[in-house]
Specification:
The complex is a heterodimer of chains A (134) and B (278). With 134 residues, chain A is an alpha+beta fold. Chain A has 4 helices and 5 strands. Chain A is 38% helix and 27% strand. In chain B, helix 2 crosses helix 3, helix 4 crosses helix 6 and helix 7 packs parallel to helix 8. Classes of the chains: A alpha+beta (134), B alpha/beta (278).
Chain lengths: 134, 278
Amino acid sequence: MTQDGHLAISGNADLVMVRQQVRVVAVEAGLSLIDQTKIVTAASELARNALIHAGGGRVSIVVVEDGRRRGLRLTFSDEGPGIPDLDRALTDGFTTAGGLGLGLGGSRRLVDEFDVASAPGKGTTITATKWARG
Amino acid sequence: MTVHADVARRRITELLGSADEQILRRWSTIAQASADELRELYQALRNSLAHEGDDLTDVRGLLAELSRSRARQGYTPSDTARAVYSLKEAVYESVEDDGGADALRGFIWFSRLIDDLGLYTIETFATAREKVIMDQAEQLLELSTPVVKLWEGIVAVPLVGTLDSARTQVVMEKLLQILVDTGSEHAVIDITGVPAVDTQVAQHLLKTVVAARLMGAECVISGISPQIAHTIVTLGIEFGDIVTKATLADALAYTLRCSGIEFSERRHTRIAVRTEDA
């Protein structure tokens, strides 16, 4: 991990690193076992998307607090081709890479807050937050 | 420029020859290595420099050997590189004694050459390490995918760790081969040891099940923990008509029943099988 808490995603081995690191920080943030598994799975999907569609990217993993509760925020960013039609990309079963087509939409359901900023040619930034249930 | 450079190079080569014992002694002092250990390397370097064309093959070979033997003695790659770099200091003393412009200019060239050789020792070290890691990764791939026989006609694959494309490939090939070899009709894929099931893992599992089906075998997926079940449902993955069980024991009981094997408690069978209403 780099100084500012970023992990690079440039190969399949990095997906393992991302999953492990997210798991460590999720435990730190006090997420339950089910929520840990959910955010780890979402991280796996989003990291793989960055790898497959943009050839790589990076992720920052931070513990956040909103006064009442603690949580985990993942920010994936890449400089890839961007998502031309976001609604379609979020539709279950829509795939351009031969997968199940559930990665992006499924990830949105796995976390509490989900935000996609993308424009064709400008890359994609996805922010996903999971709060610990107190 | 080139004329100067050639003259400068020749001057350094001459110095390496004329002051060889002195340089070697200083080098071994600074590098804290025995002169015998360094002599061969020094001679090889002199030989390569004496011939045109910078053929450093011999020197590199010796350096690789030095790097390996020092690594065995517990030196770090930096220590080895530093030992190589200290030759610069030893040679510089002779260059200073000479004091000529050619020698000084030649020293710059010599210094760059030694820098490259020092880096080479680090590279050798890294390559050796990488090879070890790759070998281990391969062994792990083989080790981590055993196919075990549970009963006549029932085999199981306990999966542990991350399922990526390469591992799924190995698992699938092994499972299909075992199905043929043993003539088994049932296979249990146990994912208790898989920490997270994402869409790719699910897709790999589904493909394996379909491939086994094509060969006439039925697969049961077991070891689905509550958190994994939760995640799979939220992701929206459908396992269709594939039989899934919470534990390996449940899966074994299920496959036994499918094979027509029944146990009754009255006969004091030591295998307790939980029966479910059909």
